[in-house]
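Question:
Now give any protein.
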Amino acid sequence: MARAIEWIEPDGAVGVLRLLDQTALPLEERMLEISSVDELIDAIQRLAVRGAPALGAAGAYGVVIAMQQAAREGWDQQHLADAITRIAYARPTAVNLAWGARRVDAVRGGGMELVLLEAHAVAREDEAANRELSRLGADWLLATLGDRPLRAITHCNTGALATSAWGTAYGILRELHDRGRLEMVHVDETRPLLQGVRLTSWELQRDGIDHVVQCDGAAASTILRGLVDFAVIGADRITANGDAANKIGSVGVALAAKRAGIPFVVAAPYSSVDERTATGDEIEIEERSDAEVLQFGGVSVAAPGVRAFNPAFDVTPHDLIAAIVTERGVVEPSDADVPLFMTETTRD
């Protein structure tokens, strides 16, 4: 199983955050060793590390990195606090990044040892949550669709590369595969940066799971032709009413699934639930560089002067979602206006 993010402490050396540079996959398995705030923010913004749960761990370990740099360079407390805030908001749509940074920052007064222990806890709990939600999601699908081999469609990357370990929506696929109940996966290529074809397919191949890659524009047809039994995606943020933000194109998959009468499932750890955001209308949608749309391999494929609209995410309304799976259980959204997720903890 690939490790997208881990803290390492070489013999006699100060600990560093090691990331698998996902911009280089699948052609090269390149590791990055992060020891400064600017290096971490750069890795987050150019998607060297990505995926909501992995960003939660990055935010958590980012507090450790900021404290180390503050000690090396003699920062005052305000400078340190500002650096942690920069990490927390390096990408605006995924709630986990700020959640991880804030959780660990809350124990900063206890010193470096306590902060590092808390960051380790964030990563460890994420893996446990992913394994549990995968079990629950597989159980729900087999109970809903029958105990038989199933065909799936997935959008974006939600495997070990997007998490501390194991995976969310991908974890459900892996769980079904391990039970002998996964026949085939249709993998959408997924913008931005083709994360489905570059990352999800790479993980499926390593895990020996039968799959095909398709362009995003083929997803609706694949569903309406009856070639898959369910759709499963991850989420970068789930609002109180069950609306879910995921990579751009997710809404189209949900609409087709609704028309075809097959389950559209969202899988994410509970840390991706933002109880304080009432609906998806309140989620800030990250917009990325024109070059990701207008260039291929660094070469322009558009006429001079053409501009691009490149949102990284869209928001699927809760009434299109058959089930939301977290480690706490499975929720089946409805048209009711009652919040699905009530505030249990304070998230500043």
